[in-house]
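[job 4471] stage=fold_predict status=RUNNING
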Amino acid sequence: MIPYEFEYKKAGSLDEASSMIATGGSFLAGGHSLIPAMKLRLSEPGTLVDISGIDDLKGVSQDGDTIKIGALATHSEVASSDVVKSSCAALAEAAGMIGDSQVRNRGTIGGNVAHADPASDYPGILVALGATIVTSSQSVAAEDFFTGLFETALGEGEIVTEVQVPSLGSGTGAAYAKFFNPASRYAVVGVGVVVTKSGDSCESCRIGVTGASDHAYRATATEEALTGSDLGDDAIAAAAAKVADGTEMMSDLSASAEYRAHLCGAMGKRAIAEAASRA
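[job 4471] inference complete, writing structure tokens
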């Protein structure tokens, strides 16, 4: 389909982008989510502000115990980054699972989190990692950033500028597991897990889930069940069975609500076991 008419502008800086955007307008980064939506008339911004050339939004770096990922970093750049792989390999692995090579080479982390597709991979692992989404006017914890179906804490005219992820410390392991739609590679259910050990037991953990509900969430019931456990097979299985607890599961052409609940347990068990083995 051919998009409707809109005004296209290209920004060279954040200030310029903010001045160019109009009410009802949208920012364009990689375009792998926005352009298809515009072609299908699911999104109809009157103004399209291209931010892909803003150098301040690019790059991946280490700043002390924090990995700083520019909003325009592509999924391929995140997946291949030595900084990410050495300090938080699970995030690099999750980025490598997104779509296909064309999507990974063009799509950006900032555009992905701003779009907030409920089946995106990043939200689940970012919530588990305790990441922070930095915008042009605020910093928001990932678990508070995703608020609903394609809804976020972004205000009108705000731009995601950076994603900050804590480096994993000694005794901490992380993993991401997903059951994907074979056509789109989107997550039918994806579970991100971070486990910190004290000896052979679980001192603390964080679990983020994507694909199952209308937005990413923390599986707090599983976290509570796992904390203090011996991380044995029985303990992991019992905790993983609670990943869907208290959350309304989506039902669509990809999977029923009941099947998604089952997948939450299966993917949760797989990710917990892997994270624990890495801790």
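[job 4471] summary: The mean pLDDT is 95.
[job 4471] exit 0
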